[in-house]
């Protein structure tokens, strides 16, 4: 309830000023656009806008970034329904049913259930965020450096080892990110680390370069290498974007289930929106009264995952705002945006700058309404963007990426780093290394080192502090279980599968 | 076919091993007057470097035995690697970084965009035109927003 009071007393007062409404609208529009366009996503967009954002008031620019984040979730569903290749990783699942529906001439219904479902899920998830965030912040404020360090270790484990096909490749990606994060002059001792003697590396590698390189340049390399001749098929929108009574009846339960699945999974640092969307799809396929339609274009298979995906995106804001822990690439770059203004997200922020926190949360409610309008009555504008041929689209993306990298400090050196990270991004994509652990390691790594040192200076160098403090010990134990349990389950399943008598 | 060795996997694993070794080799260069409480600036680099080396070795074992497990399927499974296209993109990026301070952001961007268009088999004329339009628009718009970009004719190109 504390949250609702703060939302209405300070939040909406900030978010409803004309200038902040304008920034929210810009963010939502840009977000929808980059969500629709393949090859560019919310993380890249926020990274590109970081240099511009320096001249804007922090609250306004964070409101814009939040708009980009949620807008991309809405826009991504348009692409996954109308195009055979998904725009955002969170929409891969809805592409299964959504694209089939579009092929059967039901694109309008699929887009409507995705947009309305995203709106409902987003609104409920915002309400949950409003209620949960102050509560979590109150708990988090009691955490000491040792506990915070343990939480970061837990985040590292969760994003790298739990998700994705191979924990080993996830952890490799994490160590690369941590290594890049360590590069540069170390704050406390003033010592240069991993700079290879290069002066240009003394300030470290800018987060913007890494994000743009991994996503924009890496993706362009991949397109050039394997998909040069690819012409994607855009399905026709056909009739109006609306749903029949029958569609509503079949959609509302998946929306609600998707929301309550997505939000909690978004809040735990098991990161990203893939897991909740996948689970929602599985559940809807089990519960449906029309199992014969699944795989051929079932509306439940779009409604549930789209709701889950949006609720999870809002859920990731809980650890970001209350603990300062990002669990997705976009959340990580938004954390970098906070740091650019010397604001450290975390429990203290709720006390030191309530106008910013609650203004940001209030803007999410408003942004959701804007997005519903942008994505239902105005859908045809976005569909046109899908017809931009890939060669020119990627040419534009790369020009934008070089602008972003060069503008950090007007140096060709950053352009070289951009190209090198691009090659890394290509290789990671080609050999299925997840990139989120790299981004999270890069941004959280330096914070974790600070917390680690702080914890040790309090304990006077006693390393056991992490296991004698009950909270940090518990968190580390859960993190260890996250690594060990899947291995055991895998081993057991293998034994089970190898035993032919059981089949 | 399932167990055919993928040399790409072997190379990338070896790359991780080498990166880990390079990291560890750099650690003695960090001046460590073991900060307060015995944890100096070397501690984290040592942990991360060792971690990377360990990951690299494990990846190498995977690559040399059964191959990486659960690799995502994609166009790379059936399409040949298009060397010409990748060379064009790399060429565009290198030319861009070499020339940006000489011919300005707009023209360097046009050159880069044109290379990408050619790599992805778009129409050259549209590619050059679209790249010029995007570069010029970025120069004008972001210039006004306080981003400094080099120009051959300040304020115009």
Main traits of this protein?
heterodimer; A: 503 residues; mainly alpha; two-stranded antiparallel sheet; 22 helices; 73% helix; B: 157 residues; 2 domains; 4 helices; 64% helix; 0% strand
Number of domains of chain B: 2
Q: Which shape of chain B, going by the Cα principal axes? A: flat
Oligomer: heterodimer
Number of helices of chain B: 4
Rounded to an integer in angstroms, the radius of gyration calculated over CA atoms of chain A is: 22 Å
Rounded average pLDDT of chain A: 88
Helices and strands of chain A: which structural class?
mainly alpha
- Low-confidence stretches of chain A are none
Helicity of chain B, as a percent range: 55-70%
From the N-terminal CA to the C-terminal CA of chain A, the straight-line distance is 53 Å
What strand order characterises the main sheet of chain A? Answer: 1-2
The count of strands of chain A amounts to 2
What does this structure look like?
Chain A: Keywords: Membrane, Transmembrane, Transmembrane helix. Chain A: Residues 21-439 form the DUF112 domain. Chain A: This is Putative tricarboxylic transport membrane protein. Chain A: InterPro entries: DUF112_TM. Chain A: It comes from Plasticicumulans lactativorans. Chain A has 503 residues and is mainly α. Chain A is built from 22 helices and 2 strands. Chain A has helices at residues 2-15, 18-36, 42-53, 58-82, 92-103, 107-140, 145-162, 167-182, 207-226, 245-267, 274-287, 300-315, 317-323, 329-340, 349-352, 354-375, 379-385, 390-406, 412-430, 436-458, 465-468, 470-498; strands at 184-185, 192-193. A two-stranded antiparallel ribbon of chain A has the order 1-2. In chain A, α4 (58-82) runs parallel beside α16 (354-375) and α6 (107-140) packs parallel to α10. Chain B is an all-alpha fold and 157 residues long. Chain B has 2 domains: 7-77; 83-144, no CATH class. Helix content of chain B is 64%, strand content 0%. Chain B has helices at 7-26, 43-64, 83-119, 124-144. The longest helix of chain B is centred in the middle third of the chain and has 37 residues, at 83-119. The radius of gyration of chain B is 23 Å and the shape is flat. The chains are: A mainly alpha (503), B mainly alpha (157). Chains A and B meet through α8, β2, α9, α18 and α19 of A and α1, α2, α3 and α4 of B.
């Amino acid at each position: 309830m504390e949250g609702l009071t703060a939302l209405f007393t300070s939040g909406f007062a900030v978010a409803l000023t004309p200038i902040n409404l304008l920034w929210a609208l810009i963010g939502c529009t840009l977000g929808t656009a980059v969500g629709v366009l393949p090859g560019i996503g919310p993380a890249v967009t926020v990274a590109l806008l970081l240099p511009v954002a320096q001249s804007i008031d922090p609250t306004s620019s964070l409101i814009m970034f939040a708009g980009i984040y949620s807008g991309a979730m809405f826009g991504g569903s348009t692409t996954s329904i109308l195009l055979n290749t998904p725009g955002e990783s969170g929409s891969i699942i809805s592409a299964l049913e959504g694209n089939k529906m579009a092929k059967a001439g039901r694109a309008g219904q699929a887009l409507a259930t995705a947009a309305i479902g995203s709106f409902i899920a987003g609104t409920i998830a915002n309400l949950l965020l409003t209620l949960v965030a102050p509560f979590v912040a109150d708990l988090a404020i009691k955490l000491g450096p040792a506990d915070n360090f343990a939480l970061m270790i837990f985040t590292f484990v969760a994003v790298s080892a739990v998700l994705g096909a191979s924990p080993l490749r996830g952890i490799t990606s994490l160590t690369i990110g941590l290594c890049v994060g360590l590069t540069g002059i170390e704050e406390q001792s003033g010592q240069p680390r991993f700079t290879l003697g290069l002066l240009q590396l003394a300030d470290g590698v800018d987060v913007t370069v890494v994000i743009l390189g991994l996503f924009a340049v890496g993706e362009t390399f991949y397109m050039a290498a394997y998909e040069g001749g690819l012409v994607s098929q855009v399905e026709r929108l056909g009739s109006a974007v609306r749903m029949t009574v029958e569609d509503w009846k079949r959609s509302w339960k998946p929306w609600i289930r998707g929301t309550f699945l997505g939000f909690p999974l978004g809040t735990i640092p098991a990161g990203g929106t893939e897991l909740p969307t996948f689970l929602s799809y599985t559940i809807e396929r089990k519960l449906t009264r029309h199992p014969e339609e699944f795989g051929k274009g079932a509306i439940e298979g779009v409604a549930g995952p789209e709701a889950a995906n949006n609720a999870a995106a809002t859920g990731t804001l809980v650890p970001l705002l209350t603990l300062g822990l990002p669990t997705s690439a976009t959340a990580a770059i938004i954390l970098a945006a906070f740091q650019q203004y010397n604001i450290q997200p975390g429990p203290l922020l709720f006390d030191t700058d309530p106008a910013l926190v609650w203004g940001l949360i209030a803007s999410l409610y408003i942004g959701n309404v804007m997005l519903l309008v942008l994505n239902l009555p105005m859908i045809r504008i976005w569909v046109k963007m899908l017809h931009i041929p890939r060669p020119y689209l990627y040419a534009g993306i790369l020009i934008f990426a070089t602008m972003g990298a060069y503008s950090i400090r007007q140096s060709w050196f950053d352009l070289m780093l951009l190209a090198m990270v691009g090659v890394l991004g290509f290789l990671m994509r080609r050999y299925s290394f997840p990139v989120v652990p790299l981004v999270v390691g890069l941004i959280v790594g330096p914070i974790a080192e600070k917390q680690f040192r702080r914890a040790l200076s309090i304990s006077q160098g006693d390393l056991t502090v992490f296991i004698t403090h009950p909270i940090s010990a518990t968190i580390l134990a859960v993190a260890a279980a996250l690594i060990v349990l899947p291995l055991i389950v895998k081993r057991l399943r293998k034994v089970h599968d190898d035993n032919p008598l059981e089949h | 076919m399932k167990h055919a060795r993928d040399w790409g996997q072997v190379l990338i694993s070896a790359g991780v091993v080498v990166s880990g070794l390079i990291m560890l080799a750099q650690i003695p260069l960090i001046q460590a007057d073991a900060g307060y409480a015995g944890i100096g600036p070397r501690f984290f680099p040592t942990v991360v470097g060792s971690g990377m080396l360990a990951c690299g070795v494990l990846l190498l074992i995977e690559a040399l035995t059964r191959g990486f497990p659960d690799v995502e399927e994609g166009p790379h499974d059936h399409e040949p690697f298009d060397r010409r296209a990748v060379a064009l993109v790399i060429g565009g990026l290198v030319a861009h970084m070499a020339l940006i301070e000489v011919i300005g952001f707009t023209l360097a961007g046009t050159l880069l965009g044109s290379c990408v268009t050619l790599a992805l088999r778009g129409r050259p004329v549209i590619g050059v035109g679209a790249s010029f339009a995007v570069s010029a628009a970025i120069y004008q718009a972001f210039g006004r927003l306080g981003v400094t970009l080099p120009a051959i004719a300040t304020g115009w190109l």
